[in-house]
Amino acid sequence: MDIRPATLEHLDAVVALDELHTGLAKPAYWRDIFARYVESTRPNRFFLVAEDGHRLIGFIAGEVRAWEFGSPPCGWVFAINVLPEHRERGVGSRLLDEICRRFKETGVTTVRTMLSRDDALNLAFFRSQGLTAGSYIQLEKELE
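The structure corresponding to this sequence follows.
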Protein backbone atom coordinates (compact mmCIF):
# COMPACT_ATOMS: atom_id res chain seq x y z
CA MET A 1 0.00 0.00 0.00
CA ASP A 2 1.25 3.46 -0.94
CA ILE A 3 0.06 6.76 0.49
CA ARG A 4 0.60 9.86 -1.60
CA PRO A 5 -1.00 13.19 -2.52
CA ALA A 6 -4.15 12.88 -4.60
CA THR A 7 -4.15 13.86 -8.26
CA LEU A 8 -7.03 14.72 -10.58
CA GLU A 9 -6.95 11.09 -11.76
CA HIS A 10 -8.30 10.08 -8.33
CA LEU A 11 -11.44 12.23 -8.53
CA ASP A 12 -13.82 9.60 -9.95
CA ALA A 13 -12.66 6.96 -7.48
CA VAL A 14 -13.11 9.38 -4.55
CA VAL A 15 -16.63 10.27 -5.72
CA ALA A 16 -17.49 6.56 -6.03
CA LEU A 17 -16.05 5.65 -2.62
CA ASP A 18 -17.85 8.54 -0.93
CA GLU A 19 -21.13 7.51 -2.59
CA LEU A 20 -20.61 3.93 -1.43
CA HIS A 21 -20.24 5.14 2.17
CA THR A 22 -22.86 7.93 2.26
CA GLY A 23 -25.37 6.73 -0.32
CA LEU A 24 -25.21 10.16 -2.02
CA ALA A 25 -23.44 11.05 -5.26
CA LYS A 26 -21.73 14.43 -4.81
CA PRO A 27 -19.48 14.92 -7.88
CA ALA A 28 -19.77 18.74 -7.85
CA TYR A 29 -18.76 18.86 -4.18
CA TRP A 30 -15.69 16.68 -4.78
CA ARG A 31 -14.70 18.66 -7.91
CA ASP A 32 -14.71 21.78 -5.74
CA ILE A 33 -12.66 20.05 -3.03
CA PHE A 34 -10.14 18.85 -5.63
CA ALA A 35 -9.86 22.38 -7.03
CA ARG A 36 -9.08 23.73 -3.55
CA TYR A 37 -6.98 20.87 -2.15
CA VAL A 38 -5.40 19.07 -5.10
CA GLU A 39 -4.97 21.67 -7.85
CA SER A 40 -4.27 24.65 -5.57
CA THR A 41 -0.76 25.38 -4.35
CA ARG A 42 -2.05 26.85 -1.09
CA PRO A 43 0.04 25.48 1.79
CA ASN A 44 -1.29 23.51 4.75
CA ARG A 45 -4.04 21.73 2.79
CA PHE A 46 -3.70 18.00 2.32
CA PHE A 47 -5.61 15.42 0.29
CA LEU A 48 -3.95 12.02 0.46
CA VAL A 49 -4.87 8.71 -1.10
CA ALA A 50 -4.01 5.12 -0.23
CA GLU A 51 -3.45 2.86 -3.21
CA ASP A 52 -3.01 -0.86 -3.60
CA GLY A 53 -1.22 -1.05 -6.91
CA HIS A 54 -3.04 1.49 -9.05
CA ARG A 55 -6.38 1.14 -7.25
CA LEU A 56 -7.57 3.76 -4.76
CA ILE A 57 -8.51 2.02 -1.52
CA GLY A 58 -8.87 5.05 0.74
CA PHE A 59 -8.45 8.78 1.15
CA ILE A 60 -8.14 11.50 3.79
CA ALA A 61 -8.40 15.27 3.52
CA GLY A 62 -7.76 18.11 5.92
CA GLU A 63 -6.08 21.40 6.55
CA VAL A 64 -4.51 23.56 9.20
CA ARG A 65 -6.99 26.14 10.47
CA ALA A 66 -6.23 28.95 12.85
CA TRP A 67 -8.10 30.99 15.43
CA GLU A 68 -11.64 29.85 14.64
CA PHE A 69 -13.62 30.72 17.76
CA GLY A 70 -10.37 31.37 19.62
CA SER A 71 -8.82 27.99 18.85
CA PRO A 72 -5.08 28.09 18.28
CA PRO A 73 -3.89 26.64 14.95
CA CYS A 74 -4.64 22.94 14.62
CA GLY A 75 -5.07 20.28 11.98
CA TRP A 76 -8.63 19.49 10.91
CA VAL A 77 -9.59 16.22 9.22
CA PHE A 78 -12.81 16.73 7.28
CA ALA A 79 -12.94 13.52 5.24
CA ILE A 80 -11.67 9.97 5.53
CA ASN A 81 -12.90 6.85 3.80
CA VAL A 82 -11.64 3.33 3.10
CA LEU A 83 -13.11 0.68 0.82
CA PRO A 84 -15.12 -1.76 2.98
CA GLU A 85 -13.01 -4.75 1.96
CA HIS A 86 -9.85 -2.94 3.10
CA ARG A 87 -11.11 -1.79 6.50
CA GLU A 88 -9.44 -3.15 9.62
CA ARG A 89 -6.20 -3.61 7.68
CA GLY A 90 -4.52 -0.42 8.88
CA VAL A 91 -5.39 1.73 5.85
CA GLY A 92 -7.27 4.37 7.85
CA SER A 93 -4.61 4.37 10.55
CA ARG A 94 -1.84 4.92 8.02
CA LEU A 95 -3.79 7.72 6.32
CA LEU A 96 -4.43 9.45 9.65
CA ASP A 97 -0.81 9.00 10.73
CA GLU A 98 0.43 10.55 7.49
CA ILE A 99 -1.85 13.57 7.56
CA CYS A 100 -0.97 14.10 11.25
CA ARG A 101 2.73 13.94 10.35
CA ARG A 102 2.14 16.66 7.76
CA PHE A 103 0.11 18.73 10.23
CA LYS A 104 2.94 18.44 12.76
CA GLU A 105 5.45 19.65 10.15
CA THR A 106 3.46 22.91 9.96
CA GLY A 107 3.96 23.40 13.70
CA VAL A 108 0.53 22.42 15.04
CA THR A 109 0.22 20.06 17.98
CA THR A 110 -3.49 19.16 17.87
CA VAL A 111 -5.72 17.43 15.35
CA ARG A 112 -9.51 17.75 15.34
CA THR A 113 -12.44 16.40 13.40
CA MET A 114 -16.21 16.62 13.56
CA LEU A 115 -18.69 13.88 12.76
CA SER A 116 -22.27 12.88 13.28
CA ARG A 117 -23.15 11.13 16.52
CA ASP A 118 -24.83 8.52 14.31
CA ASP A 119 -21.62 7.78 12.36
CA ALA A 120 -20.65 4.76 14.43
CA LEU A 121 -18.03 3.60 11.93
CA ASN A 122 -15.97 6.81 11.97
CA LEU A 123 -16.61 7.45 15.65
CA ALA A 124 -15.18 4.03 16.52
CA PHE A 125 -12.23 4.60 14.17
CA PHE A 126 -11.28 8.01 15.57
CA ARG A 127 -11.64 6.81 19.15
CA SER A 128 -9.38 3.84 18.34
CA GLN A 129 -6.81 6.36 17.11
CA GLY A 130 -6.82 8.23 20.44
CA LEU A 131 -9.16 11.12 19.58
CA THR A 132 -11.47 12.11 22.42
CA ALA A 133 -14.01 14.85 23.04
CA GLY A 134 -12.26 18.20 22.89
CA SER A 135 -12.75 21.48 24.67
CA TYR A 136 -15.13 22.88 22.03
CA ILE A 137 -18.73 21.85 21.42
CA GLN A 138 -20.80 22.18 18.30
CA LEU A 139 -24.15 23.96 18.54
CA GLU A 140 -26.82 24.12 15.86
CA LYS A 141 -30.29 25.45 15.09
CA GLU A 142 -32.67 24.57 12.30
CA LEU A 143 -33.42 27.55 10.06
CA GLU A 144 -37.01 27.98 9.01
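The chain is about 35% helix and 25% strand.
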